[in-house]
C-alpha cells in the first residue's frame, strides 16, 4: 500500500470515493434565444463506414447544476482507488474494459445482453441508427445500463455529438452548430455555453462520453472527411475554441474525447475507406498539427482518440493507431499524456482493408492504447474480444500492461462518478431552450 494510505484523511477520501462511485449525475438546462442553433436533425447520408457514421452534408455564464468530475486535492486518492478497484477485477473483466462496441438495433437485444453478461464490455457507442426518437433513445440507454447492474464497473455510454453534420441526438432536439460555425463567430463566451449545452443535453439522455471536440486543423480544402468539423484553419483558432468546448463539457459530467491525434486535417484520403499518408516533417507537425493537442493536454484533456493514418516521419510501418512510436513515444513519453487513449473505429477501411481486425486490436493495445472501438459488425467484435483474450493468455499483453490500462480507465470512471442508474424522461423543452440560449452570441 502506498505511503499516503497511512494518513487517515486519505483513507477517508478513498472510502468516500467508493461510496459515491454509483452516485448520480445531475443536470440543469436554462432558457435562452437562438441565433446559430439550427433545426432538428435532418436526413443523413448512407455513409456508414466508421464510428462517425451517417455524416450529413456539409449568454449566460452560470455553472451547470451537476456534480461533474472530482478535481484538485482528490486526484491522488482517485488514482489509488482506481488502482485498488482495477486490482479487484478478474482477467475477463479487465479485458472487457478494453473494448467499446456498437449495437445494431433500437432496443436491447440478446446480442447486447451477451456483450454485457459474457464479454463484460466497458461500454457502448450509439449512432443515428440507434437513436430514432427521444423516448426510444432514452429507453435503450436505460436498458443497457440496467443489464449491466451486476457487473463491477458502470458502462461508458458514448456518442459522436460534434454539432453540425455529425449530430446524433434525435428530433426534436435542436441541432448544435458545427465547429466551423463556432470558429467563424470566434466568441469565446458563446463557445463556453455551447460546450455546456452539449454536455447537459447528452447527460439528460444518459450519455457520459462524447467523441468531441475535433482538434484537427482545416488546412486542406481537398480533405473529404474533416472540413466543417474543424474550428478553423489555424492552430491558434482550433486550440482556442476546441479547448474551451472541452473544458466546458467536462464540468457537466460528460467526458470529452479530443480527436484525431496526431492530426487528420491535412489529408486528402478518407480513412473510412483507405489509409491516408501524411508526409510532413517533424518540424511541421510540431508547429501545426500537434499544437492543439499539446495545448489541450496542458489544459487537462483526459481522453484522446488516435487516428488511422500513416505518418512516415513518425513511423513508416504502422498507422498511428497501431504505432508504439506515436502512442507511447510521442503521446505518452514526449507529450506527457497519462490519460485514456482510445482508437478510432477499427472497422474502418484504413484498418480492415489490409489487416486482420483482431491482430490490429492487439497491436493497438500493445502500442499504448487503452480502449479499442469496434462500432460495427458483431463478428468483428467477437474477433477482437477473442484476440485480446488470447493475447493476455499468451502474455503478449502482460498483466502489468493490462493493470496499468485498467487503472487509467477505472480512475476516470470514478472521477466522473459513472453509474448505471436510469435517467428520468428527457425534458425536450428545457434541453432545446438551453441549446438555443447557448447559440446566441454574447453582446
What can you see in these coordinates?
With 443 residues, this protein is of the alpha/beta class. It contains 16 helices and 8 strands. It has helices spanning 8-20, 75-88, 91-96, 110-117, 134-147, 179-185, 188-205, 235-250, 282-287, 291-298, 324-334, 349-352, 357-367, 378-394, 399-415, 428-438, and strands spanning 99-102, 123-126, 156-159, 209-210, 255-261, 303-306, 340-345, 371-374. Strands 1-2-3-4-5-6-7-8 form an 8-stranded parallel beta barrel, surrounded by 4 helices. β6, α11 and β7 form a beta-alpha-beta unit. α2 crosses α15 (399-415). The termini are far apart. The model is unreliable at 1-67 (pLDDT under 50).
List keywords for this structure.
alpha/beta; 8% strand; 41% helix; 443 residues; globular; disordered N terminus
Produce the secondary structure layout:
Elements: H1 8-20, H2 75-88, H3 91-96, E1 99-102, H4 110-117, E2 123-126, H5 134-147, E3 156-159, H6 179-185, H7 188-205, E4 209-210, H8 235-250, E5 255-261, H9 282-287, H10 291-298, E6 303-306, H11 324-334, E7 340-345, H12 349-352, H13 357-367, E8 371-374, H14 378-394, H15 399-415, H16 428-438
Parallel strand pairs: 1-2, 1-8, 2-3, 3-4, 4-5, 5-6, 6-7, 7-8
Approximate shape: globular
Strand content: 5-15%
SSE topology string: HHHEHEHEHHEHEHHEHEHHEHHH
Q: Determine the N-to-C terminus distance.
A: 54 Å
| Strand order, largest beta sheet | 1-2-3-4-5-6-7-8
- Using the CA coordinates, give the radius of gyration: 20 Å
Approximate helicity band: 40-55%
Name the average pLDDT. 85
Structural class: alpha/beta
Give me the number of helical elements: 16
* Assembly form of the protein: single chain
Unreliable segments (pLDDT under 50, ≥5 consecutive)? 1-67
DSSP summary, beta strand count: 8
Main sheet specs: 8 strands, parallel, barrel
Amino acid at each position: 500500500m502506498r505511503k499516503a494510505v497511512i494518513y487517515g484523511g486519505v483513507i477517508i477520501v478513498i472510502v468516500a470515493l467508493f461510496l459515491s462511485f454509483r452516485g448520480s449525475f445531475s443536470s440543469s438546462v436554462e432558457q435562452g434565444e437562438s441565433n446559430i442553433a439550427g433545426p432538428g436533425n435532418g436526413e443523413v447520408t448512407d455513409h456508414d463506414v466508421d464510428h462517425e457514421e451517417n455524416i450529413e452534408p456539409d449568454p449566460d455564464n452560470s455553472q451547470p447544476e451537476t456534480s461533474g468530475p472530482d478535481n484538485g486535492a482528490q486526484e491522488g486518492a482517485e488514482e489509488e482507488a482506481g488502482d485498488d478497484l482495477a486490482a479487484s477485477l478478474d482477467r475477463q473483466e479487465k479485458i472487457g474494459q478494453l473494448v467499446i462496441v456498437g449495437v445494431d438495433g433500437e432496443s436491447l437485444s440478446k446480442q447486447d445482453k451477451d456483450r454485457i453478461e459474457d464479454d463484460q464490455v466497458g461500454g457502448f457507442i450509439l449512432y443515428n441508427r440507434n437513436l430514432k426518437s427521444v423516448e426510444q433513445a432514452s429507453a435503450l440507454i436505460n436498458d443497457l445500463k440496467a443489464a449491466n447492474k451486476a457487473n463491477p464497473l458502470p458502462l461508458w455510454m458514448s456518442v459522436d455529438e460534434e454539432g453540425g453534420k455529425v449530430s446524433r441526438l434525435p428530433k426534436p432536439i435542436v441541432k448544435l452548430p458545427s465547429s466551423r460555425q463556432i470558429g467563424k463567430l470566434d466568441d469565446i463566451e458563446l463557445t463556453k455555453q455551447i460546450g455546456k449545452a452539449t454536455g447537459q443535453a447528452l447527460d439528460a439522455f444518459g450519455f457520459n462520453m462524447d467523441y468531441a471536440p475535433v482538434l484537427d486543423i482545416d488546412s486542406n480544402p481537398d480533405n473529404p472527411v474533416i472540413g466543417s468539423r474543424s474550428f478553423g484553419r489555424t492552430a491558434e483558432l482550433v486550440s482556442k475554441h476546441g479547448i474551451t468546448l472541452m473544458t466546458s463539457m467536462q464540468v457537466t459530467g460528460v467526458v470529452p474525447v479530443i480527436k484525431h491525434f496526431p492530426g487528420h486535417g491535412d489529408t486528402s484520403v478518407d480513412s473510412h475507406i483507405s489509409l491516408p499518408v501524411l508526409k510532413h516533417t517533424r518540424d511541421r507537425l510540431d508547429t501545426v498539427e500537434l499544437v492543439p493537442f499539446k495545448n489541450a493536454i496542458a489544459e487537462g484533456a483526459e481522453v484522446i482518440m488516435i487516428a488511422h493514418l500513416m505518418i512516415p516521419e513518425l513511423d513508416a510501418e504502422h498507422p498511428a493507431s497501431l504505432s508504439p512510436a506515436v502512442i507511447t513515444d510521442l503521446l505518452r513519453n514526449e507529450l506527457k499524456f497519462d490519460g485514456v487513449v482510445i482508437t478510432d473505429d477499427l472497422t474502418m477501411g484504413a484498418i480492415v482493408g489490409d489487416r486482420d481486425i483482431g491482430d490490429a486490436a492487439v497491436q493497438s493495445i500493445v502500442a499504448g492504447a487503452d480502449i479499442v472501438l469496434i462500432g460495427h459488425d458483431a463478428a468483428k467484435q467477437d474477433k477482437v474480444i477473442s484476440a485480446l483474450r488470447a493475447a493476455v493468455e499468451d502474455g503478449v499483453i502482460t498483466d502489468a500492461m493490462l493493470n496499468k490500462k485498467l487503472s487509467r480507465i477505472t480512475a476516470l470512471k470514478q472521477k466522473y462518478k459513472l453509474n448505471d442508474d436510469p435517467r428520468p424522461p428527457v425534458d425536450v423543452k428545457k434541453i432545446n431552450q438551453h441549446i438555443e440560449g447557448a447559440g446566441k452570441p454574447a453582446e
